[in-house]
Amino acid sequence: KAVRDGINEGGIRTRSLALGEGVAGQAAQLGLPLRLNHRSKIEQFSTNPVHCIMAVPLIYGGRLLGVINLTNKVDADGNEDPVGRYTEQDEQLAKGLADQAAQNLHKARLYDASITDRLTGLKNNRHFQEQLDKQLAQTGRDSKGLCLAIIDIDLFKRFNDTWGHKAGDYVLMRAARILEESCRTTGQDLAFRYGGEEFCVLLSDTDLETAHTQLEAFRAAMEDAEHVWQNRSLRVTCSVGICHYPEGATNAHDLFERADAALYAAKQAGRNRVAVSQVTAELDPVQVVKPAGEPSATPTPVPDPIQVGPPRAFLPESIGANTDSALPIDAFSAEDLDPDEFPRNDLLPGDDDDPLSAMMA
Questions:
Q1: Is-contact 117 193, C-beta < 8 A?
Q2: Active site residues
Q3: What sign results for the dihedral spanned by CA atoms 34, 36, 41, 45?
Q4: How many domains, in total, are found in the chain?
Q5: Which residues of 48-59 are buried (b: 16+ CB within 10 A; e: fewer)?
Q6: Residue 300 contacts by C-beta under 8 Å, 6 or more apart in sequence?
Q7: pLDDT at residue 53, rounded to an integer
């Protein structure tokens, strides 16, 4: 039964069939080319109005990768020949092309596997590094710039420690799916699993305000989604750091470091929120925005800002709707933090409550 019928990126019509379905399905099942030059024989497999058909399987290393399907032979001028027939010579030519196509398809699949995270299906760190350099090089003067968002699942270690690593895997897969759903269908957004419980998103031709709005929507979706593991409802939240190129960074290293610093700031300010790093590449102040609906009367204390470069400067008013709950602080790098004081994947100071209380809805 056909499950997909469309045009691929190369402009070639593609269709998925069950083994044995139609002429192509028969060729796939037998692993041999099939030529049918008589309408009466073709009608046994297809109702399509064709007078000749040839199907050649794509096989590499003993594995079936697909089938090339040819119909209605044309004459030397490229016009359909109503009496044309596929010959043995045509079959040999098609088989040679199929062998080459199968080899190239195998190589493409190997490459795709090498840049894909097996657990989540997102592209991996290797591909992120490649795309970061590529996207920066393609960001021109007429572009709105490039935004990098780094996402960290809050208190992720607790899921592993309390329910086991399979529960942690479940949380990562859920986060990946929600992240994919939050990406724009225009192809501007590329999502990656950076490693562990961290994800990255590259948002091309995107200003900081748009990136913030989009990542805030993702953060809210993560918090509001139903996460059920073995009949238990889990509370899963995330923290996000964003930086913009060229306004907030001058190169790939700066862009990542400052987005990472913003992520740290979001975690220090209480987690489950978005922090943005922008203004100038020299100052790099960080602004932390609280989730919608969170009380702002007693904000979570943050450490004294660390001075970087010229005199202290802050971002303009809060980006987005939560202007009254912004906590602007100066930037700092990952090296400025004591990992024992602010561990990324463990309990933060003051988290002496029962581990289940932070995870169970």
A1: yes
A2: 197
A3: positive
A4: 2
A5: eebbbbbbbbbb
A6: 268, 269, 270, 327
A7: 86
**Residue 4 pLDDT:** 37
pLDDT given for residue 339 in this prediction: 36
Looking at 58, 91, 115, which one is the last position of a domain?
Answer: 115
Assess whether 88 and 149 both reside in one domain: no
For residue 42, the model assigns a pLDDT of 66
Question: Which segments of the chain have a pLDDT < 70?
Answer: 1-15, 39-49, 73-83, 278-361
- The verdict on 255 and 183 lying in the same domain is yes
Long-range contacts of residues 93-101, Cβ cutoff 8 Å, at least 24 apart: 94/33, 94/54, 94/56, 94/68, 94/70, 95/33, 95/56, 97/56, 97/68, 98/56, 98/57, 98/58, 98/59, 98/68, 99/59, 99/60, 101/58, 101/68
44 is in which domain, residue-wise? 1-115
The alpha carbon dihedral of 12, 18, 21, 23 has a sign of: positive
Q: Which of 246, 276, 306 is where one domain is finished?
A: 276
Residue 262: DSSP 8-state: H
Indicate the residue type of 217. Answer: A
Please indicate, yes or no, whether residues 93 and 148 belong to a single structural domain of this protein.
Answer: no
Side chain identity, residue 312: R
